[in-house]
UniProtKB/TrEMBL annotation:
Record has Magnesium as a keyword: yes
Co-factor requirement: Mg(2+)
KW DNA-binding (keyword) present: no
InterPro entries on file: Isoprenoid_synthase_dom_sf, Polyprenyl_synt, Polyprenyl_synt_CS, Prenyl_diphosphate_synthase
Organism for this UniProt entry: Actinidia rufa
Family recorded in the similarity comment: Belongs to the FPP/GGPP synthase family.
Gene Ontology cellular-component annotations: cytoplasm
Pathway it works in: Isoprenoid biosynthesis
Pfam families in the record: polyprenyl_synt
GO aspect biological process, one term: isoprenoid biosynthetic process
GO MF entries: geranylgeranyl diphosphate synthase activity; metal ion binding
Protein name: Geranylgeranyl pyrophosphate synthase 1
């Protein structure tokens, strides 16, 4: 069984780099309360039956036999959803829009730094989620492209800052030297700041065919997802938790729901709002996104200890070196994989009331996140 190879399009492989030590604030024993009931993985038991799928489940994993079946499908039947073609098409659209939005101009250095990381590749999962959610609720994909670009700008900013010596001190990102290794720490910080600021400007000025109240709502959702109640909250609790032995599952879930899942959730919710989705549709998609957001990080934790830096396009094993708490560290690799399966199923269950054909991209994206290899 082989993964549909999306990474060949986006990730360039580079040599393995070492992980240096870093200087930061001393760890604290801050254990934030969860505002929501955590997604429990304590009741996981070995499976004795196949994982149930929704009636329109589309897998991002294909065997040779599956491929042959698709090729032999009678013309009278609906053709199988082509996930790879969909991802390539949407990613190409996003890449062009990003290239156009962040052009080279004065001051040259800052724009070169912004473009270096923004256009370095990547799977473009967040912007594609945004566009797919817009399409699912009946919106035109063009309405979501500025927001899709904005979430990718913010995601890139978070990686640039995360790689700095005061944070994760990483030398490798998307198969290339990290931004501060090329442009220096000062420019890397400022380039990340510039991408963050421009992301909101881009939504406000480039979105077409959407009411002003929905655009304002989108800007509010995005700001919340990355601020002190979102991405930043997860990042600071993650930093404060290093070296603390008594971190439990609820604490770990808080970190991942905020540090990783919040922006993924925001990507989907933004698309649903821009596409004209009802409040009920937006909330269903929010629940879907929360599951795949946590799923993304569980899989990341597994890959960090099972893949090489060459396979990942970033430094492998850095969580272990930094003594970070992860799902494999707390419950083991096999239980982590089972938890990932449960999250994938729960996510796709949220899409059961939508049109199967329109939901196919999001289902396939959930499977891709669950079964990716980098």
């Amino acid at each position: 069984m082989s993964l549909v190879n999306l990474s060949a399009t986006w990730v360039h492989i580079c040599s393995i780099h070492g992980l240096a030590t870093r200087s930061r604030s001393p760890p604290s024993k801050f254990f934030p309360p969860l505002k929501e009931k955590p997604i429990s993985c304590s009741s996981l038991t070995p499976r004795t039956r196949p994982i149930s799928r929704s009636p329109f489940s589309i897998s991002a994993i294909l065997t040779k036999q599956d491929t042959l079946k698709d090729e032999n499908t009678p013309e009278s039947q609906s053709p199988a959803f082509n996930f790879k073609a969909y991802m390539v098409d949407k990613a190409n659209s996003v890449n062009k829009a990003l290239d156009d939005a962040v052009s080279l101009r004065d001051p040259l250095t800052i724009h070169e730094s912004m473009r270096y990381s923004l256009l370095a590749g990547g799977k473009r999962v967040r912007p594609v989620l945004c566009i797919a959610a817009c399409e699912l609720v009946g919106g035109h994909p063009a309405a979501a492209v500025p927001a899709a670009c904005a979430v990718e700008m913010i995601h890139t900013m978070s990686l640039m800052h995360d790689d700095l010596p005061c944070m994760d001190n990483d030398d490798l990102r998307r198969g290339k030297p990290t931004n501060h290794k090329v442009f220096g720490e000062d420019v890397a910080v400022l380039a990340g700041d510039a991408l963050l600021a421009f992301s909101f400007e881009h939504i406000a000025t480039a979105t077409r065919g959407v009411s002003s109240d929905r655009i304002v709502r989108v800007i509010g959702e995005l700001a919340k997802s990355i601020g002190a109640e979102g991405l930043v909250a997860g990042q600071v609790v993650d930093i404060s938790s290093e070296g603390i032995s008594e971190v439990g599952l609820e604490h770990l879930e808080f970190i991942h729901r905020h540090k990783t899942a919040a922006l993924l959730e925001g990507s989907v919710v933004l698309g649903a709002i821009l596409g004209g989705g009802s409040d009920d549709e937006v909330e269903k998609l929010r629940k879907f996104a929360r599951c795949i957001g946590l799923l993304f990080q569980v899989v990341d934790d597994i890959l960090d200890v099972t893949k090489s830096s060459k396979e990942l396009g970033k430094t492998a094993g850095k969580d272990l070196v930094a003594d970070k708490v992860t799902y494999p560290k707390l419950i083991g690799i096999e239980k982590s994989r089972e938890f990932a399966e449960e999250l994938n199923k729960e996510a796709k269950d949220q899409l059961s009331g939508f049109d199967p054909e329109k939901a196919a991209p999001l289902i396939a994206l959930a499977n891709y996140i669950a079964y990716r290899e980098n």
